[in-house]
Amino acid sequence: MDDIWKLFQETNRLFQESKEKSEKDFEETRRIMRENRAETERMFQETERRFQETDREFKEVAQGFKETERVVKEVSRQIGQLGSRWGEFVEGLIAPACIDMFTKRGIPVDEVYPRIRKKLGGQHMEIDLLVANTVAAVLVEVKSNLKVEDVRNHLERLSQFKSFFPRYADCTIYGAVAGIVIDADADLFAMNKGLFVIAQSGETVDIANDPNFVPRTW
User: Fold this and answer.
1) Share of the chain above pLDDT 90, in %
2) Nearest CA to 115 among 145, 144, 92?
3) What are the sequence ranges of the domains in the chain?
4) Residue 88's pLDDT band (boundaries 50, 70, 90)?
5) Fewer CB within 10 Å, N- or C-terminus of the chain?
6) What are the residues whose beta carbons fall under 8 Å from the beta carbon of 62, sequence distance 6 or more?
7) 99-207: which CATH topology?
């Protein structure tokens, strides 16, 4: 019996120790879970705060982009207006001299029409200055800075002119290009293609071609 009692006591002791250890482990686990939960909540709150801060920064950046876009549009509009006014100024400088310049070159013109526009089907044509009478017309392309590409475009315009303006079908058509600044080779290219070149001459403008120049006609 003593052995059985001792075995019972030992078993009971081990059970109590196991129970105490289990309770201690359980409490430790609960403590860790509480700490982890608190840390998780803290991290969640920090993440939420950062999301809100990032969202605010994105909104500020978006607002900045909108303001930049507005400024760019306004500047582009002003530049466009300035370019248009500058073009009108250049045309206004050249137009008064056209009749005298071309008459001296043997082309009997007596009228100047600025900004002539015409639509034909899905195409359109615009002539900066049309210097004309009943038998001849000169199409003048005016640029603040004349480039070779401008000359090419004007040659294309000249080839299509009578299709757009059939009332000039029986007229002799001449071409001219004008520029306050003329790129290198643009003037020679135009002259070689049979066009008059109008350039600055002192405080006014004049035809830069040689007096013996023979213009191309359309």
Assistant:
1) 48
2) 92
3) 99-207
4) low
5) N
6) none
7) Trna Endonuclease; Chain: A, domain 1 (3.40.1350)
